From TrEMBL:
It holds the Pfam family NosL. InterPro entries: N2O_reductase_NosL (IPR008719), TAT_signal (IPR006311). This is Nitrous oxide reductase accessory protein NosL. The lineage of its organism: Archaea, Methanobacteriati, Methanobacteriota, Stenosarchaea group, Halobacteria. Residues 1-23 are annotated as: Disordered.
Length: 204
């Protein structure tokens, strides 16, 4: 693995640290998605959720947890596909942050609902931008279906300097090299996305 340096920007303008103004490409999007897809199918053989695919989040879609418009805010976004498709009305539940994704799912499971698949932004598979706003460091958000990866394929970094729509958040990657690069620059602790618990969110 040879991950490319992350891009950064200041004063609210999104620029590349070394290339003066254009977002830095981390890797070809389709290549990353194809690799993730193969890994997902291999790991989920026989799982009834293996056939579930992520959907793109619409421009006007509100977060099912907090009500904010997902595409209007920076950082990790997520979606959870439930067995009963309720009360979302036949669509997956969709969220403006990693914290909203897990909070909603934990609450729903506590009420007896069954989550079949959870997807989060895979920052190893997108051309991300890093920018500063109000003194905070943020990652761009990505709502297209190709930007998501399954929870078991991801490592999340918690308690880093990068915040999301709801403040401190989980920053997911499918590539271990990207995790190492991110933590070296922004701090935080890495953990498997499947190991996130309520206590994890409370400690952010």
């Amino acid at each position: 693995m040879n991950p490319t340096n992350l891009s950064t920007a200041t004063s609210g303008a999104q620029t590349n640290r070394s290339a003066g103004g254009s977002p830095l490409s981390r890797r070809a999007l389709l290549g990353g998605v194809a690799a993730a897809g193969v890994a997902g199918l291999a790991g989920c053989a026989g799982d009834e959720s293996a056939s579930i695919s992520p959907v793109s989040i619409g421009d006007d879609q509100a977060c099912d947890q907090c009500g904010m418009i997902v595409s209007d805010h920076p950082g990790t976004v997520g979606q959870v596909h439930f067995e009963d498709d309720e009360p979302e009305g036949g669509r997956p539940a969709q969220f403006c942050s990693g914290t909203c994704t897990y909070t909603y799912r934990f609450d729903a499971e506590g009420e007896g609902r069954t989550a079949l698949a959870t997807f989060l932004t895979d920052y190893s598979a997108v051309d991300q931008e890093v920018f500063e706003s109000g003194g905070d460091t943020m990652f761009s958000s990505h709502v297209e279906s190709e930007a998501f990866a399954r929870e078991p394929e991801l490592t999340v970094v918690v308690r880093s300097e990068v915040i999301g729509a709801m403040g401190p958040d989980l920053v997911p990657f499918s590539d271990d090299g990207d995790v190492e690069e991110f933590t070296a620059e922004y701090g935080g602790e890495a953990m498997a996305a499947t190991e996130v618990e309520r206590a994890t969110l409370e400690a952010l």
